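[step 3/7] fold_predict: job queued, chain A
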Amino acid sequence: MSNDVVDLRNFYAQRLGVAARRFIGRGIRARLADTRGMRVLGIGYATPYLGLFREEAERCLAFMPAAQGVLKWPSTRPTLAALVDELDMPLPDAAVDRVLLVTDASIERAQRALWEGLRIVVEPGGAAAFSALHSGGYLPASGERVGVVLSGGNSTAVRFD
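[step 4/7] structure written:
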């Protein structure tokens, strides 16, 4: 299962997507606190989070898998996004210092866990924030209370075989 890049862009443009980006972005920023002078690569639909590093990093690129599609990023500057084959990255060894991987697989696992554990159907974008918690990508601080809003408005039937 692969989410279309247009659906992902539309999700992140909605209020729920803005909240998810803010929530997940905090966890990402905590793990990649200082990227000054580094070369940062986002793989998948990472553009909502790459903006955190674009001004301080030496270079910031977005590689989007062919099955997902690609959108121009950033929208008002020269393009830093490319459509790539998932198994053939067009970079030499040691070309980047940090990689930010945003995968459909972790979102699908979160959707499956919500279905199997609670019988809740959520759309891929609506499972993004839960995916960050479920995968361990975001680890709440001791005593931190976390709330996740789930959305299923744009769901399609999915079999979790």
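[step 5/7] annotate
The mean pLDDT is 83.
Residues 36 and 55 are 9 Å apart (CA to CA).
exit 0
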